[in-house]
Specification:
Order of helices and strands: EEEHEHEHEHHHHHEHEHH
Structural class: alpha/beta
Distance between the termini: 36 Å
Helix content: 40-55%
Oligomer: single chain
Shape: globular
CATH architecture: 3-Layer(aba) Sandwich
CATH superfamily: Alpha/Beta hydrolase fold, catalytic domain
Number of strands: 8
Largest sheet: 8 strands, mixed
Length: 272
């Protein structure tokens, strides 16, 4: 499978051609903390109905390299650019969730000519302008750091998706555990991603984003409060805010069809 390179970091990616139109626009999808591209589950084939989908494993997880030294969301945004270069994609829609949303913001700022439309999911601009993660969720993440990767995913599930979803979909945690078992993430990898997210601050820069932007989140997010999406939408000129009722943090897993429809409504609008 293909790997791109950004300096000395090897980056795994997959390019899924549209099942309906080979010339469909490209949608780059960027996952969040400790999640490889496999955690998109059935959302990739769903989006392939409309788009050519490019997904990657961020540095630190999955089949990409796990650097020993700290890195930033700036470097992770340049990773996305390197993957696009290797895949032969000059310009694309960019969709990032959580840490992936932070990377997507950085990408739009660092590579504006390569950003068509931008979707920022369940994320934050960081800095003092952001509403902090609830202390109870921070405590859950810290306790999870002492567990194996599969156990940590299960332990943190109640702050990643809603309790009602967990009750209704007893297949999700086994699916996550299977991925985690086959792709173990070293503590260093997830810790360095967490550090990159903690240091992320574009509060003084987001007003410079010129790509048409959709800010999308679940209104029941227990990890990154939905207020952060409201603040982002207020800070990015001309952006649109959409809330998914009842959805938790990982809304593409919890509400895949409403999530897909929200993206399609926004991304299929012709750019002015």
């Amino acid at each position: 499978m293909p790997h791109a390179s950004n300096r000395d970091v090897s980056l795994y990616y997959e390019l899924h051609r549209s099942s309906a139109a080979p010339a469909a626009p490209v949608l780059v999808m960027i996952r969040g903390l400790a999640r490889s591209a496999r955690f998109w589950l059935d959302f990739v084939p769903r989006m392939r109905r409309t788009f050519t989908v490019l997904v990657l494993d961020n540095r630190g997880v999955g089949r990409s390299d796990k650097p020993a030294l700290p890195f930033t969301t700036r470097q992770m945004a340049d990773d996305v650019a390197a993957v696009m270069d290797h895949a032969g994609v000059d310009r694309a829609h960019i969709f990032g969730m959580s840490l992936g949303g932070m990377i997507a913001m950085r990408f739009a700022l660092r590579h504006p000519s390569r950003t068509d439309r931008l979707v920022l999911g369940c994320t934050t601009m960081g800095g003092r302008a952001a509403q902090r993660i609830p202390l109870s969720s921070v405590a859950t993440l810290l306790r999870a750091g002492r567990l194996s990767f599969p156990d940590a995913l299960e332990y943190t599930a109640p702050i990643v998706v809603s309790p009602s979803f967990l009750r209704e979909r007893d297949d999700i945690i086994p699916a996550w555990r299977a991925i985690a078992t086959s792709e173990p993430v070293p503590l260093r990898g997830s810790a360095l991603q967490l550090l990159a997210a903690a240091e992320h601050d574009v509060s003084r820069e987001v007003a410079a984003i010129r790509a048409p932007t959709l800010v999308l989140t679940g209104d029941a997010d227990r990890l990154i409060p939905a207020e952060n999406s409201r603040r982002l939408a207020s800070a990015i000129p001309g952006s649109t805010l959409e809330m998914l009722p009842g959805a938790g943090h990982d809304f593409t897993t919890e509400q895949p069809e409403p999530s897909a429809l929200a993206l399609e409504r926004f991304l299929r609008v012709a750019r002015p």
